[in-house]
Amino acid sequence: MTETRADRFAADLAALKIPDPAAGRGSLWLRLGASLMIAGPGVAVLSYFLAHNTSDPLAQRDALALALTGVALSVVGAALFVRYSLTGVLRFWMARQSYDLDQLAQRLTESRVPLDDAAPVAR
After folding, report:
1. pLDDT of 77-120, one tens digit each?
2. pTM (2 d.p.)
3. Is residue 2 part of a domain?
4. CB of 100 closer than 8 Å to CB of 34
5. Separation between Cα atoms, residue 116 and residue 109, nearest integer Å
6. How many other CB atoms sit within 10 Å of the CB of residue 47?
């Protein structure tokens, strides 16, 4: 039976022993980041209404501190979301680069092209 290119790639990927992203906690951190991005503006809007519905300066300052906490939650959530959403893409990209470089090395060794004479050096 002839093996397809996709089958060879999957076998080579398994040989590289790259950890399965589903087995890790990446999806948990991704969901947490998305939740924080949603909860942060919600906390900020809630604190806006808390600050404007009172004339007590102490309560207004507490609401402002809560609003800053909401903004910080949004920033942290966005950072977590971007980091863990790019992890899968970059993991696949690195595995693909490794596979392509291995294929290039095999083709060069099979054709026995001398690397020193391939490109003349300009002086």
Report:
1. 999 999 988 887 887 888 888 888 888 888 888 776 555 655 55
2. 0.61
3. no
4. no
5. 13
6. 21
Query: CB under 8 Å to 65, separation ≥6 — which residues?
Result: none
Q: How far is CA 26 from the centre of its chain?
A: 9
70: in domain: yes
Q: Please write the tens of the pLDDT for every residue from 59-80.
A: 999 999 999 999 999 999 999 9
Domain count, the chain: 1
In a domain, 20, yes or no: no
The residue with tokens 């991005």 is 37
Task: State how far the Cα of 50 lies from the Cα of 69, in Å rounded to an integer.
Answer: 14
In a domain, 46, yes or no: yes
Tokens matching residue 24: 């890790």
- Please report where in the chains the tokens 């092209």 appear, as a residue: 113
Triad 18, 20, 24: Cα angle to 5°: 120
Could you list the residue range(s) of the whole structural domain that residue 102 is in? Answer: 25-110
